[in-house]
Las17-binding protein actin regulator (Roseiconus nitratireducens), 188 residues
Amino acid sequence: MRPFKQLLALIFITATFSPAVFADKTTIIGGEITFAHVAIDPTAPPDGFCDDPPGALYSVESDALFGSLETRQETLAFSGAGQATGCAYLVPLDDGTAARFTGSFVWHTEDGDLNGTFELIDGVIDGVTGVFSAVVFIEFTGGTERFQKARGSAVAIGYDFPFGGLGGNVDVGGLAAQIIAGEMKLKE
């Protein structure tokens, strides 16, 4: 039942983004994100604790953030850095949410830096341990050069490997996700 609810949510989110391209707006039609970090050791003490709902607090940082953002006009490759802090719940929530993280990023491109924030929601995958389904809500908040006044949002879906296994490497944790929709405004 949980995958059905997640699918409905993704369809609703995707449908809310206009497919048209306006002079001051760019429709994001795809792309990818990889956020690699040192694998979290689940046997080590967490960075703290969360109260409501109860869980373990973790923080990760990385300069191994890379991917692309696709529009109808271009593919914008980026590399960069990011950080995230969040709670891994001791017991998954009724909707299957296993963890929720928030963070920020800087994507370096040939046309300037693009800054933003994100919320990552990890979901339980029945029968699978150590890997979670991931939905990422991205907000663009400005930057430099071309992106100085950038504002917008995007949604990505994929998998989170917090305890290692990203790219087949047991020592590397992180997120691998596909951007499915979004919109960015570059002018006021």
Summary: The chain has one domain: 10-44+76-186. The beta strands are 25-38, 48-50, 55-71, 75-89, 97-109, 112-123, 132-143, 151-161, 172-185. The chain has a mean pLDDT of 89. DSSP finds one helix and nine strands in the chain.
